[in-house]
Amino acid sequence: MFLFGRTKTPQELVRTLKELLLQLEKGEKKYEKIAEDVTKCLSGIKNILYGTNDQDPQTEVIAQLAQEIYNSNLIRIMIDNIIRVDFEGKKDIASIFNNLLRRQIGNRSPTVDHIASRPEILSKLIHGYEVQDIALNCGMMLRECCRHEELTKLVLTSDQFYKFFDYVELSTFDIASDAFLTFR
């Protein structure tokens, strides 16, 4: 992936994105420059997962990327900081998350296993309905999680599940509709 003037490996992309997101979280100076670099990294990761116009996705590179994302706990960091990225970045985070969640190796779903071992990720996605700017993105990711029985059980047995009764009655129609869609 060509980024920042040279080709970046999946490991470099993940490491760079993690560092940039943590800088955004701390409220570092040069916010616009950091946010722009976050968008570039997200785009680079998305290109690895989906391919580009002139290159198909490569299974081996995707496997390296996914493993690096799990090892660095980048899924949680992306969800923690989704509010701090721009509109396209929010869409890219949801797209990356959903792509990784659909990924299977034989009968295994490594991202499902990763999220199941970290239920705070599901909790953050549920709480996303409380923030208008990220509610629809979090809802999209949460619905993708609920396609997997193991993750659905975690959502249904969590204390946050009962918040859906409040979310479906929100005065903001699109958020209430999205919450109802997820609840259903």
TrEMBL record:
Pfam families xrefs: Mo25
InterPro entries: ARM-like, ARM-type_fold, Mo25
Gene3D superfamilies, per the entry: Leucine-rich Repeat Variant
SUPFAM superfamilies, per database record: ARM repeat
GO biological process: intracellular signal transduction
GO molecular function, one term: protein serine/threonine kinase activator activity
UniProt record similarity statement: Belongs to the Mo25 family.
Name of this chain's protein: Calcium-binding 39-like
Source species: Brachionus plicatilis (Marine rotifer)
